[in-house]
Amino acid sequence: MILGSGHGLGLAVFPLAAAVIAATFAGLLAKGLLRRWRWHEVAWLLALAMFAAASAAMFFGVVRGWRPADFRVYWLFGAVLNVPFLLVGEVYLLAPRRWMGHLSLVLLLAGSAFAGWKVWAAPVHVGPLAASLPLGKDVFGDGSLPYRLAQFYSLPAYFLLLGGLVWSVLQMKGRRDLRDRATGTFGIAMGATIVAIGSGIGAAFHVVPLFSVSLAAGIAVMFWGFLRASRRHAPAAG
């Protein structure tokens, strides 16, 4: 079996930087959770950890040549599961009852186990792994379930994430105490949009710097949104 020989540290430094940024933000979020447990931040922490894992897998794939395991980690945590965990965090933040968030999390964990099984057990086409940034449809096969899982999981989650933003903005009218929540939700949605657009263009044209820089920038915007949405204010004096 012939595998890629690598594309050099010059390209690999970009996904490495994205992995470091995601891991750093995940550490900061974890530190906050040690002080105060918040379920929406738990979901966002998992999303950041997935960003870090996917970026690290991409780093190894670029620097020494992609292996099937590298691509499986990159695809599962980056393309399939990441946005759904961002959505679960939003459900916890916006839903009027906590059980709604718990139900969303349980369903997603079950869906994650199914997706992990399918992605890890699926056969891969080795030839496309020689590219600096292989495409899922080439590695798994156009129309295959592991490739389609990214569409089944991430696309609905992304549009629901945007729907949550609209709902949050509507709820904010006349409620200054909800301004940070709405602004933070906007930051999370915009960060996800930066990642989606930049990674989509970067992957389509095999431009590793564009893919990774958009990933790092999107993570930074999302993390700002996490912090803003989690602000707590004292009640206004009567």
Quick recap:
The chain has nine helices and no strands. It has helices at 9-35, 39-64, 68-80, 82-94, 98-121, 136-139, 145-172, 179-204, 208-229.
Characteristics of this structure?
238 residues; disordered C terminus; Rhopdopsin 7-helix transmembrane proteins; 9 helices; mainly alpha
Question: How would you describe what is shown here?
Answer:
The chain is mainly alpha-helical. It has a single domain, classed as Rhodopsin 7-helix transmembrane proteins (Rhopdopsin 7-helix transmembrane proteins), CATH 1.20.1070. It contains 9 helices and no strands. Helix 1 packs parallel to helix 9 and helix 2 packs antiparallel against helix 4. The longest helix is centred in the middle third of the chain and has 28 residues, at 145-172. The protein is globular.
CATH superfamily: Rhodopsin 7-helix transmembrane proteins
SSE run: HHHHHHHHH
| End-to-end Cα distance | 73 Å
> What percent of residues are in strands?
under 5%
Question: Under CATH, the topology is which?
Answer: Rhopdopsin 7-helix transmembrane proteins
By DSSP, the count of extended strands is 0
Shape: globular
Poorly predicted runs: 234-238
Q: What's the gyration radius in Å? A: 18 Å
Task: Summarize model confidence as the mean pLDDT.
Answer: 91
The computed structural class is: mainly alpha
Give the CATH architecture. Up-down Bundle
Number of helices: 9
Number of domains: 1
Query: What characterizes the major β-sheet?
Result: none
- Name the CATH class: Mainly Alpha
- Indicate the percent of residues in helices: over 70%
